Structure prediction request, 489 residues.
Amino acid sequence: MSHKSTGRFLIFLLASALAAGIPTAAAAARHPSVSHDYGDALTKCIMFFEGQRSGKLPPTQRLTWRRDSALKDGSDIGMDLVGGYYDAGDNVKFHLPMAWTTTMIGWSVLEFGNKMGYPDLRHSLDALRWGTDYFLKATSVPDRIVAQVADPVLDHDCWERPEDMDTPRNSYLLNASHPGSEVAGEIAAALAVGALAFRKISPSYTKLLLNRAIQVFEFGDKHRGSYAQSVGAGACPFYCSSNGYMDELAWGAAWLFKATGDNKYAYYVKSNLGTSLTAFNWDSKFAGVYVLLASLDYAYAANADNLVCAIMPESPFKTYTFTPGGLLYAEGASSNMQNPTALCFLLAAYTRVLRAQNRVVQCGDVNIAPSRLDRFVEGQVDYILGSNPLGMSYMVGYGSKYPQRIHHRGSVLPDIRKHPERIGCSEGYGFFRNVTSNPNVLIGAVVGGPDVNDRFQDSRLVVSQSEPTTYINAPFVGVLAFVKGRANV
Prediction:
């Protein structure tokens, strides 16, 4: 763009200011100053996971419109697979995103647990254990890992409450002849994170988790291959593995190094280090490895610096875009909100490394200090919680204006206490097509969010915008604890 024209230059400055989150008169008009209650948002963010629980619910269940479900999972293969989480608005247990969700809840506890406060920390540990307990079941038979439970095609053809579902609950197995290194690497990471989180609470549980993490990692590394090929139609097009499996194996090894201190895992990571900075999510883990190990080796810190330069709006090397209202946006993302929540988690975690090393990140001729990362993360959080052009909180139950018609079976269909009669597969679509607000509030659910122009359709039909997922909320637990801690300083 030429800067010779004063008018065009002013337009450029205005666009740059909006993208960078720098206050302008127009931005102030659209984003009135709002003081957000980060503690309330954190409590609700964690509560969301109770709405995603599968299996026998505990007496402490706070979202009481949910009831026991899928109590025979695993019976088709003679295993107990009761428990775990439904990934989003459906009733399938996809283990790859579920394991990443579990890992990120655990990392949130390890990184920012001291900023949560006792009740939220306890509930975060409950959410973590709901995942680790389940993955102990899914890996209980040596040299066999369960990759998924339920036929996703048939499940998605129905609109049923989890408590009513009668679609096939078949189990998808991985073994030596049908490998799945992505699932193995991520489950190993989840179990290793759990071992670290519960180390001071339950040494015996920690030992069980760590031994199983080592066993699962070794299986995934020895029998390399993509779970997408082994599971087939059960994986794609729902959770295809587009980045291969080496990032998951390196991720699992990185967490095993943190949990054991064994240098063989550090060597494994260094020998298999990738350079992808395209994303950090259930399918892409290298960026997480860089930040996790940045304090140990310059090679990791250099890549973590590159990640900062790829994200920050003022960086000449940025690869991410932003909506006019300032939300980080990844073009082509099926559910964009997973990007700002996960990437902000990495930035928040990396500020601790930068401060410990007393340095800034240099992006060409632009220096980015930890305090700038702090403000950026807080700005993204504020946008998600309602400081945006629509004044819409994208967390259900937070603020006065939030999505009312989210794409979620349990939230859309009536509470089983009020409607005890079974609602069949096709019968549920009558409730789905109803344009009224969902009867059950899935408190804390962060939905897919607005489009690249800050527009949002509060409609169950627009799945990419209105569906919540566990892997949006999981890193947001840590992000909210981070901004809550800053607000309390």
In short: Strands lie at 93-94, 145-149, 171-174, 321-322, 328-329, 361-363, 366-368. Residues 312-406+442-489 form one domain.
